[in-house]
Amino acid sequence: MTTSLESKLPKRTLIIGAAGFLGYAVGKKLAESGLITLGIDRRKEDDSKTRTRCFNELLLTPGFFLLRGDPGDFAFVSETIRNRSPECVLYLDGPSENRRVAVSSGLAGFSNVLEACAANPKVKKLFFRTSDAVYGDHGSTPVREEDADDGPAESIGAIERATEVLAQSVARDPGSRLSVTSLRIFNPYGPGESDESLIGSLCAAQESGRPVKIPGAGDTILDCTYVDDVVDAVLLAMRIGRPEGSPRFDALNIGSGRGTTVLEILSEIESASGRTAVKTFVPQPFAASRVADISRIRRLTGFSPKVPLDEGIRKTFEWHQTHRA
Does the N terminus or the C terminus of the chain have fewer Cβ atoms within 10 A? Predict the structure, then answer.
């Protein structure tokens, strides 16, 4: 793309979940580009060290304005959007594997943000994070956006499909001009990633010398997307124009377009660490193999992943070494 980053991106963006893994990475990039960036995050006393560090760094980032608040508080969300007047809102709160929390916090919070954006004509675009969990088990066959399953076996997938259906209903409202896009992000990983994620947990265990827990037989195929590539894809998606009369809801796969088994991921971690892992295999009740077809976002934006898995794993493992020394 030949145009500059600043020339096409919204001048004022609000990020929900700003101190999370992806919210922090996207927010820093926007602020460093000289754009006005606002953030909302639920800062809690029992947050992880990584989340606390992200929160504190954002407070000191020039051009970034961070507010402590709960997206589940509709009055707070509405007032923030009304007073701060963002042109674009990014809902990047990470999904919870706990079904009760995902519904009471995630789905309710998204509903509040969606309603507040639809009611404010200054907000032109809303992007929200979902994942490959909206798809069923497709093996190594790349999944296209139209392959989403209306009855995913995983709870998180069912909840994410519910957010998409809710977003579609608002986008179809003839009284709203809001453009809404679901960003289906496949297995994001990289420095700063939570230990609760697959690659984060494998790196943390290998770095500390603990046995590495392999889910199932380790043959599940995953599409893993390095955080810098995710940020590039999100910023490119924010540039997409919406022709008059076109649908105001869309979904975009964000992935590497390549499938890798869990054992192959571990092999890259072993190479990065310089030693063989002590493996222990643990039960995995449900395992879906999924690889992203990224032809749609490539066609619309020119997106092309740049960081290969071996390089991304090495950088991630080195981060774990530095931050756990």
Answer: C
